[in-house]
Design brief:
The complex is a heterodimer of chains A (about 280) and B (about 425). Chain A is of the alpha/beta class and about 280 residues long. Helix content of chain A is about 45%, strand content about 15%. In chain A, strands 5-4-3-2-1-9-8-7-6 form a nine-stranded parallel β-sheet. In chain B, about 40% of the residues lie in helices and about 20% in strands. In chain B, strands 3-4-14-9-10-13 form a six-stranded mixed β-sheet, with helices on both faces. Chain B has a four-stranded antiparallel β-sheet with strand order 1-2-12-11. Chain B is globular. Classes of the chains: A alpha/beta (about 280), B alpha/beta (about 425). The structure holds pyridoxal-5'-phosphate.
Chain lengths: ~280, ~425
């Protein structure tokens, strides 16, 4: 084992003959304290890798669920620095679960790329997924991140054809995130077979693990995707579960449990597929 | 583009879509292949004489180009300074400069075999122009418009519907142009196969800023010819309002290397540039950031969250600006300054009374800038305003504002 948490997480899952469960939550939602509690307990509930969403005012690739969560976090005073502090707090207790920050470029650009990367590394961030930085803009953050030993995880999509893939994969590390559909987060997958074909096509281009995200809501969905993917990403469904547990926007004693229940369910679904 | 002049301000963008430090292609991977395809198709179209001929014909017979250059005699007398001319884009079919861009892009969409057209709109002028060209070419049209703007630009909403477009109100954020653009991008990322995104201003990911500029440059090209004919030299100053910056870059661009021609961009100063989140002057009051596919000046907070801003004018109520303007600001070639809601409304009334022309509230910002600088200029000097649109769409809003005595004060709350 080396010290790359992302690599290790996928290796551990492979040893257990199953795919990895990658869970997305929005940092600072529904409030900082609850969000930290959810983050801290996700691994115990069954998350292998955590994507922590950095709220942005204009999340162009997200549907209403994640957008609203981000806006609520921002309204509560959340910001980039607080997201990093959440990771620092998490790392005090958990040295092995990888954390990937997912978001949009502007808050990082305004924070200052070098300053951000230093702070992220120090906090214990393992990777970045930045939606609006295609490979054409690698000089902005991808290459600097690699210098700081932070994985830059690339999104590939149904529109990324074989000609383009090598360019997209070139500076990718950690894993490759296949976006299951053309669309925004929160939409349902309509054709799992097509997604499977796409993942097999991707595998012929890279040895990196492939995680599939967008549109995976239930344990059954997760199991379907686990048949062909190395990782299964669930986001909107977890935020929705949390939303449904709130009363007048406030957390209840069931809120954290509602997220845990779904995570456990998803983990079971994934474990039911032996690889 | 003149590559033989290495120092020309007209050389941008570079092959990655950058104008100096601004521009670029900050889009989700899903859209990246689409904008590369668009860039390629646009490069081909530019070299295709048939494409150019078809566009020229439509500009002439459908839009009514060239738009006249009009000497505003009574306004000139009133202001007692430079001679004032209007480049009358408001006389174009559909009532603004927006149609210049829509015709260019709709022909591209047709070349690319796209059957469904989407657009964002603020004032509704771009929405109307898009709905119009879609009707003309028999293409499906969906227009995203902020819910606030749907209300304050109601006549244009009705026009779009008559033209067969589907208008989708966007309630996110302040319900203005930024939110409409987010929603249009979400639509595009979902419907990649059949959909063409017809962006209405010189912003967004490369190649849009360059492409929209090229289509709008017909304004400045005509102006140069018309002005030389009337005055036998170039104007001393050109003024345009700045929303995303398409009418302004269209009239500025052909003059960028004529340094004796001073260029002024009027930004939306709202309640005043000192009022936090009370204006939409992204260059005067913002800082560089990345939104909607490009790096440019943006209104944002210290965390890089985009602010909503405010303007009386729906078409200027956008927290960003096209990247070429950001470049021209930093280079010092163009002077950008804010015009408040109040100043714009006064200019709106003055123009209507003295010249019998009701300007769009957007264009009234440019006019207010003219009112500021014309009196400081010599009578032998000349100034041209890009009268980008007509104000029919605004009369209801203006009549409400004029009857509200607290108008222009943020704390009093606008009764829009
Ligand atoms: C008449 C008119 N002028 C100007 C604008 C601002 O856009 P731009 O800065 O792209 O010209 C608009 C936008 O709606 C408009 O309708």
């Amino acid at each position: 084992m080396n010290d790359n948490r992302i690599e290790n997480a996928f290796k551990n899952c492979a040893k257990k003959n199953r795919a990895a469960l990658v869970t997305f939550i929005t940092a600072g939602y529904p409030n900082l304290k609850t969000s930290q509690q959810i983050l801290d307990t996700l691994p115990k509930a069954g998350a292998d890798i955590i994507e922590l969403g950095m709220p942005f005012s204009d999340p162009m690739a997200d549907g209403p669920t994640i957008e609203a969560a981000g806006h609520k976090a921002l309204a509560g005073g959340h910001n980039t620095l607080k997201t990093l502090e959440m990771v620092t707090a998490f790392r005090k207790k958990d040295k092995s679960t990888p954390i990937i920050l997912m978001g949009y470029y502007n808050p990082i650009y305004v924070f200052g790329v070098e300053k951000f990367l230093k702070a992220a590394k120090k906090a214990g961030v393992d990777g970045l997924i930045i939606v609006d930085l295609p490979s054409e803009e690698d000089d902005e953050l991808c290459l600097p991140a690699i210098k700081h030993d932070i994985n830059f995880i690339r999104l590939t999509t149904p529109t990324t054809d074989d000609n383009r893939l090598p360019k997209v994969l070139k500076n990718s590390s950690g894993f490759v995130y296949y976006v299951s559909m053309t669309g925004i987060t929160g939409t349902a997958i309509s054709n799992f077979e097509k997604v499977g074909d796409a993942v097999r096509r991707l595998k012929s281009h890279t040895d990196l693990p492939i995680a599939v995200g967008f549109g995976i809501k239930t344990a059954k969905d997760a199991a379907q995707v686990a048949k062909f993917a190395d990782g299964v990403v669930v986001g909107s469904a977890l935020i929705k579960a949390l939303d449904n547990s709130l009363q007048n926007g406030n957390i209840t004693k069931n809120s954290i449990g509602a997220v845990h229940d779904l995570v456990r369910d998803l983990a079971k679904g994934i474990a039911s597929i032996k690889k | 583009m003149d590559k033989s002049k290495p120092n020309s301000l007209k050389n941008g963008p570079d092959e990655n879509g950058n104008f100096g430090n601004f521009g670029g292609r900050f889009v989700a991977e899903t859209l990246m292949p689409l904008i590369l395809e668009l860039e390629n198709e646009y490069e081909n179209a530019k070299k295709d004489p048939l494409y150019k001929a078809e566009l020229a014909k439509l500009n002439k017979d459908y839009t009514g180009r060239p738009s006249p250059l009009y000497f505003a005699e009574r306004l000139t007398k009133e202001l007692d300074g430079a001679k004032i001319y209007f480049k009358r884009e408001e006389l174009n079919h559909t009532g603004s400069h927006k149609v210049n861009n829509c015709l260019g892009q709709i022909l591209l969409a047709k070349r690319m075999g796209r059957t469904r057209i989407i657009a964002e709109t603020g004032a509704g002028q771009h929405g109307v122009a898009t709905a119009t060209v879609c009707a003309r070419f028999g293409l499906e049209c969906v227009v995203y418009m902020g819910a606030t703007d749907v209300e304050r630009q109601a006549p244009n909403v009705f026009r779009m519907k008559l033209l067969g477009a589907k208008v989708i109100p966007v309630t996110a954020g302040a319900g203005t142009l930024k939110d409409a653009m987010n929603e249009a991008l979400r639509d595009w990322v979902t419907n990649v196969d059949d959909t063409y995104y017809l962006i209405g201003t010189a912003a967004g990911p490369h190649p849009y800023p360059a492409m929209v500029r090229d289509f709008q440059s017909i304004i400045g090209e005509e102006l140069r010819e018309q002005f030389l004919e009337k005055e036998e030299n170039l104007p001393d100053a050109i003024v345009a309002c700045i929303g995303g910056g398409s009418n302004a870059i269209g009239i500025f661009h052909p003059f960028l290397d004529d340094v004796e021609v001073k260029l002024f961009g009027a930004e939306a100063g709202g309640y005043g540039i000192e009022v936090e989140n009370g204006h939409a002057a992204s260059m005067t009051g913002g800082k560089p950031g990345v939104l909607h596919g490009n790096r440019t000046y943006l209104l944002q907070d210290d965390d890089g969250q985009i602010l909503e801003g405010h303007s009386i004018s729906a078409g200027l109520d956008y927290p960003g600006v096209g990247p070429e303007h950001s470049f021209l600001k930093d280079s010092g070639r163009v002077t950008y300054a804010p015009i408040t809601d109040k100043e714009a409304l006064e200019a709106f009334q003055l123009c209507t009374k003295l010249e019998g022309i009701i300007p769009a509230l957007e264009s009234a910002h440019g006019l207010a800038q003219v009112i500021k600088i014309a009196p400081t200029m010599d009578k032998s000097q000349t100034i041209v305003l890009n009268l980008s649109g007509r104000g029919d769409k605004d009369v209801e809003t203006v009549s409400k504002l004029l009857s509200s005595k607290d108008f222009g004060d943020k704390n009093a709350g606008e009764e829009l």
